[in-house]
Amino acid sequence: WAGxxxxxxxxxxxxxxxxxxxxxxxxxxQKDAQAAGNYSExxxxxxxxxxxxxxxxxxxxxxxGVQVLWISPVFMHDGQYHGYCTTDPTTTDPGFxxxxxxxxxxxxxxxxxxxxxxxxxxxxxxxxxxSYASPPGHAQCTAAKGLEYYDGSDESATLASSAxxxxxxxxxxxxxxxxxxxxxxxxNSIADVSGEGPAAVFGDFHEGMFDYNTLNxxxxxxxxNLHKYWLAYADVDGFRLDAAKHVTNDFLAYYSTEVRSYAxxxxxxxxxxxxxxASQGERMKAKALGRMFSDPxxxxxxxxxxxxxVTTALERLKxxxxxxxxxxxxxxxxxxxxxxxxxxxxxxxCEAPSTDIPKxxxxxxxxxxxxxxxxxxxxxxxxxxxxxxELHDWPRFLGMMxxxxxxxxxxxxxxxxxxxxxxxxYGVEQGYNGQCxxxxxxxxxxxxxxIRAMCDLSDKEDYGQHPDPLKRQDMFLxxxxxLGSAVSSVNDLARVGPPSNTDSVTWQExxxxxxDQPMYQHAKRLIALRKSCPALARGSIAWHQAAHGACGLLxxxxxxxxxxxxxxxxxAVASELVVIINPGGAGTVALEPxxxxxxxxxxxxxxxxxxxxxxxxxxxxxxxxxxxxLVQYVxxxxxxxxxxxxxxxxxxxxxxxGVSLCRGGADGGADGGxxxxxxxxxxxx
Length: 685
Fold this sequence. Notes:
It is a single chain. This protein is of the alpha/beta class and 685 residues long. It has 3 domains: 7-11 and 70-124 and 225-415, Alpha-Beta Barrel (TIM Barrel), CATH 3.20.20.80; 131-211, no CATH class; 536-683, Sandwich (Immunoglobulin-like), CATH 2.60.40.1180. It contains 21 helices and 28 strands. The longest helix has 18 residues, at 217-234. This is Glycosyl hydrolase family 13 catalytic domain-containing protein. One of its GO terms (biological process) is carbohydrate metabolic process. Residues 8-452 form the Glycosyl hydrolase family 13 catalytic domain. Residues 18-42 are annotated as: Disordered.
């Protein structure tokens, strides 16, 4: 999983491959409004994307170079398009497709050399017809649950008076129809959800989303077994645990350990478990990751703020996780590296100085996270932590500067050459910017007013202010919510209006998948380079330069320590690369001799070539009086990326791809395997 290129799909918005299931599990409010011709709430409706649509586009994803596919939840839900309100985890949502279609999609993805990570909801269960018998005492209830969890105190009397009984409906998922399986503390505020106090763990997200009591051992076992079924049935390669911040860490240890152990028992070693730990503080993320601030071999040796209930769970699980040769630790395999991602995104969008990026790498937050991470084989500890520019809960990277394509090119240059496992949110390779077109093509006046009002909120970026639909545009021609792009030919297809019944076509013929436009080609060549260069996929980073201004020049090396630089094929492999990125804040930049830093042994008079333009060369000079310098006299245009590799350690320039790949160092599939450069997916899977 180290350095693997991940692609996130919001299932309802990616592609409608089966028109026959479009009316399945649609909420009554949507059906009634559609019948009346009122599309005012259309951006929040189901639009028809499904598993069949993803399956039809696997060739497109393989052409881009994707190694891991993250699919939003597929289980039966309450009819909301996003699928994060699960009602029955034993079957798939009929609007998304059948269990057989899910299994077929995964099998086809494997034939393309793509691993599949399935999004599962572990924090709550939804049921619109279930309610509280009386209002819960939210503050008292969450505080008491927190004292039980963090301090081990007996708060049964307080909980008896503050936790409310649930009136379960007849449709409530039967295996979970038990009061003790839910915290029953009532609805959180936005501040509760985004905070790090007990309410974030023990309160309900929203009305109708009932928060699981993840401290309950019977509940833990039932939910785990349900997901083990899907692991075996669909042959998925990993789970993404939605809202992992909002569950207890004893549950995360139990779930992660047991699901990895089960996967290995059926022949799937190194099963991936990543959690959405969206906390502001790095310590809260690190408590759920890998070692969990405990000595895996001796859980009684732990940090002071590790709850006793977690230590007890680790003692019980120790034999199982210590037997795992790939991951001998109890916690999540990975988390999102949100601090690295956030620092880079703000700097690359000209909202903060470029120095903020290396500042993160040299700071205590990163050290806190990496101390708990368990590295993948032959990789740095952060090489498998997911990094992002945008995702389904963040505004599009170009949302505030919708036509600045050069800025996105620079940002992709960073994402695909930086440490971590880069995650591409669907459509970023097509330049998506989340902007509405000028015309709203509905005849219903209230519809036009409502949608325009939402579109006018595109400049709001704070949590809860930027509308989710602007982050989640349709990527198929029949969709009613086709928003804009910084790529002019893609932007020409933007349309907000009544849906059509356009039949799906092959991905090569699909107008929404423009593979000849420059943003796609830019992403494709950088992905290919990353896959061919172990230093980019799993190496360390050394910073050479970062401008103090916003959108300023960035220069760094990615390198492998000598012991890890052995080539796979016997050829000389590029064990270090120098990356220079110009986001464009200072316009065109004339490069001058640049001091080189880091734990790299530079050799005097060695020549390097820009793999993206091999006519550009640079020379390393080392003198007795001064440290190493990279000498080059070229200019960098806004958005331009240069990647210098040692001459003789890259393949001849591939004119069709637009890059010279590293020789003999292809890192292959997400499971750490390699196809040896043959392109045969069966050699990986």
